[in-house]
Design a protein that fits this description.
Largest sheet: 5 strands, antiparallel
Distance between the termini: 38 Å
Structural class: mainly beta
Helix content: 10-25%
Strand content: 35-45%
Mean pLDDT: 79
Shape: elongated
Number of domains: 1
Radius of gyration: 21 Å
Strand order of the largest sheet: 5-4-7-2-10
Number of strands: 10
Number of helices: 2
Low-confidence stretches: none
Length: about 140
């Protein structure tokens, strides 16, 4: 039976979610919400960046072949693994501030806010997130 994968229960500040099931089979669906992107990984390589919408996966991961090969090779898991990582494309607010290191007549202080968002989901996952299961702005 095909499974449906989506990022449920995202909290404010969550940026990346790695779905815990790494055996995405043929015919499964990935639902990407409007403020998200998803990256499909197979054998450790990023294959595609999925945009908002419903996507059907055709990995040729047929259950009978998987069960047969698993018994022959001795795997306790599917030999055809794929995983999905969801990335939020929302704006995130950050704050900064500090104090000058000198204690002159008028010590200086500075503070402010900045906003940022992920523009290149693939590069963000490869360079920043790495192997973490969840990544947030806190």
């Amino acid at each position: 039976m095909p499974e449906v994968y989506e990022w449920m229960g995202a909290r404010p500040g969550d940026i990346v979610y790695r779905h815990p099931d790494d055996r995405i089979g043929w015919g499964s669906q990935i639902i990407v919400k409007q403020n998200q992107a998803a990256i499909l990984f197979k054998e450790g390589k990023a294959y595609d960046v999925l945009t908002p919408g419903r996507h059907f996966i055709t990995t040729k991961n047929l259950p009978l072949i998987t069960k047969f090969l698993s018994r022959i090779v001795g795997f306790d898991r599917s030999p055809f693994n794929a995983e999905v990582i969801f990335i939020s494309l929302s704006d995130y607010k950050g704050k900064f501030g500090g104090r000058s290191q000198t204690m002159d007549l008028a010590p200086l202080q500075f503070h402010g806010e900045y906003y940022w968002e992920v523009k290149d989901p693939s590069a963000f996952v490869m360079e920043i997130v790495g192997n973490q299961k969840i990544y947030n702005s806190a």
